[in-house]
Specification:
- The chain folds into three domains: about 60 residues, no CATH class; about 90 residues, DNA polymerase, domain 1 (Orthogonal Bundle), CATH 1.10.150; about 190 residues, hpI Integrase, Chain A, CATH 1.10.443.10.
- It is about 50% helix and about 10% strand.
- It contains 15 helices and eight strands.
- The strands form three sheets. It has a three-stranded antiparallel beta sheet with strand order 1-2-3. The protein has a three-stranded antiparallel beta sheet with strand order 4-5-8, with no helix packed on it.
- Helix 3 crosses helix 6.
- The longest helix has 23 residues.
C-alpha cells in the first residue's frame, strides 16, 4: 500500500525521521545552504535527550543526505552508532574492540586489550578522534623505540609494529564508518623488524640438558619438543588418544593458550598446523613408559585424580597452564646450571638438528606445521647457509679424493 498524501494524511519527512531517531534540517548560510542530520542517540542520566549533529558538505543533495541519515539511524537502533563529533579515541577504540573484534581468538583479543589499555589510551585516550594527527602518532612511535612507558626500556621494531597494526586497523574502520575522512595512521614510517635469530644449544649443552632430564617429570615433555618440534601449546593439549602406538605417529589438532590466568584449548589457527607426524622409536618407548605412569597415578589418586588423558600433566592429572610450564622449565635450567633457553627455542633446536642431518626442508615444513615453505626458509636461513657451506666442503673433499 502506497503512502497517502492529502490534507487528511500529510506526510512529513522531518517528522518521519524524528519519530524514528533523527531528522534532516536545512541550515541557511550567506553563500547558500547545507543539510545537517540531527540524530537522537540516547538519554542522559537526567532524562535529557542526547543528539548528535552531522553537517554535510555544501552541494550534498537532500536525497544523498537522507540516505546517510537512514544509515545513521539504523546504526543507532542496532547500537552500532558512534558519534563523529565529540567521540574520543578511547571511546572509539573500546567500541571497536567490542563490536568488530569478537570473531578473533581469545588470545588475539587479549593482546589487543593489552595494547589499547597499555599504550594507546594512555597516550591518545582523551583526544577527539577527529583531531587525531599523523604527526602525533609518528612522534609517539618514535618515543616507543627509545623507551616504553610500561617497561621503561626500548620497544623492539616488532612490538611497535604490533601496536601500529591494532591502531591502524581501528582507524581504518573509522574511515569505513564515515567517522573519519582519512586514516591518520596510514602514512606512518616504521623501523624494519630484525629477522629473528633462533637461540639453540650447541652439542655439548644439548648433551648436558638430556642428561639432566633423565628420570625427571620433565624428561618426556622436553624430549617431545626436541624430537618432534611441536609448539608449547600443542604439547600441553596433546592427549594419549592422539598417539598411535602401533604405527608410531602423533596427531596434532589442538593448541592450549593462556588468556590472563585461564588456559584454553582450541583448534590451531591454520590448517597446516593440523598434522600427523612420525615418532622416533626411542621417543615412542618413553611415551609408553609415561602412559603407564599416568595409569599408575590414576590409581594412586583415586577420586582426586583428574582424568584428562593429557600426555603432559601434573601428578593429579590436571593440565599445565602455558606460563606455569614455562616457569617450571626455567627453574629446571637454573637448578642444573644450564644456559637459559625458551621453551619455544626447543622447537628451533629440533629444526636445526633436522637441517644439519640433511632432512628435506619440505619434510621439515610438514613436521613443524608451517603454512608456507618460505616461513621455514626465512627462519632457518642462517642454519641453511651453514649447512650449504658444510655440503660444499664435503663435495670438495670427495672430488679431491677422486682426483688423487
Amino acid at each position: 500500500m502506497g503512502r497517502v498524501h492529502n490534507s487528511l494524511y500529510p506526510f512529513c519527512w522531518k517528522e518521519y525521521y524524528k519519530n524514528m531517531s533523527g531528522y534532516l534540517r536545512k541550515n541557511e548560510r550567506k553563500d547558500g545552504y547545507v543539510w545537517q542530520a540531527v540524530v537522537n542517540i540516547g538519554i542522559d542520566d537526567n532524562g535529557k535527550r542526547l543528539r548528535d549533529y552531522h553537517t554535510f558538505p555544501q552541494g550534498t543533495t537532500k536525497k544523498e543526505a537522507e540516505r546517510v541519515l537512514q544509515k545513521m539511524i539504523l546504526e543507532v537502533e542496532n547500537k552500532e552508532y558512534i558519534s563523529d563529533s565529540n567521540v574520543t579515541v578511547k571511546e572509539f577504540l573500546l567500541e571497536w574492540l567490542d563490536t568488530y573484534c569478537r570473531s578473533k581468538s581469545p588470545t588475539t583479543i587479549n593482546s589487543y586489550k593489552d595494547i589499547i589499555n597499555g599504550y594507546l589510551i594512555p597516550e591518545f585516550g582523551r583526544v577527539k578522534l577527529k583531531d587525531l594527527q599523523t604527526l602525533s602518532i609518528q612522534k609517539f612511535y618514535n618515543r616507543l623505540y627509545e623507551c616504553s612507558p610500561l617497561s621503561k626500556k626500548p620497544l623492539s621494531a616488532k612490538s611497535v609494529k604490533n601496536i601500529h597494526m591494532v591502531f591502524n586497523s581501528a582507524l581504518k574502520r573509522a574511515v569505513q564508518l564515515d567517522i573519519l575522512k582519512k586514516n591518520p595512521a596510514q602514512n606512518i614510517q616504521l623501523q624494519k623488524c630484525k629477522r629473528y635469530q633462533s637461540d639453540v644449544y650447541d652439542t655439548t649443552e644439548l648433551a648436558q640438558l638430556i642428561t639432566a632430564l633423565r628420570g625427571t617429570d620433565l624428561e618426556c615433555p622436553i624430549m617431545i619438543l626436541l624430537m618432534m618440534g611441536i609448539r608449547r601449546g600443542e604439547l600441553l593439549a596433546l592427549t594419549y588418544e592422539k598417539i598411535d602406538f602401533l604405527n608410531s605417529t602423533m596427531s596434532i589438532d589442538q593448541n592450549t593458550v593462556q588468556v590472563n590466568a585461564e588456559a584454553i584449548t582450541k583448534a590451531p589457527k591454520t590448517e597446516s598446523s593440523i598434522r600427523t607426524i612420525d615418532i622416533p622409536y626411542s621417543l615412542l618407548n618413553l611415551l609408553t613408559r609415561e602412559r603407564d605412569n599416568y595409569e599408575r597415578r590414576k590409581l594412586e589418586y583415586g577420586k582426586y585424580f583428574h582424568d584428562t588423558n593429557l600426555v603432559v600433566s601434573q601428578p593429579n592429572g590436571e593440565g599445565f597452564k602455558p606460563d606455569s610450564f614455562t616457569q617450571k622449565f626455567k627453574r629446571f635450567l637454573k637448578r642444573h646450571g644450564l644456559r637459559h633457553l625458551r621453551v619455544h627455542d626447543l622447537r628451533h633446536e629440533n629444526a636445526t638438528l633436522m637441517l644439519k642431518a640433511g632432512v628435506n626442508p619440505k619434510v621439515m615444513q610438514k613436521r613443524l606445521g608451517h603454512s608456507n615453505y618460505s616461513t621455514t626458509m626465512d627462519i632457518y636461513a642462517k642454519v641453511l647457509t651453514e649447512t650449504e657451506q658444510d655440503a660444499v666442503k664435503l663435495l670438495e673433499s670427495s672430488l679431491e679424493t677422486i682426483v688423487m
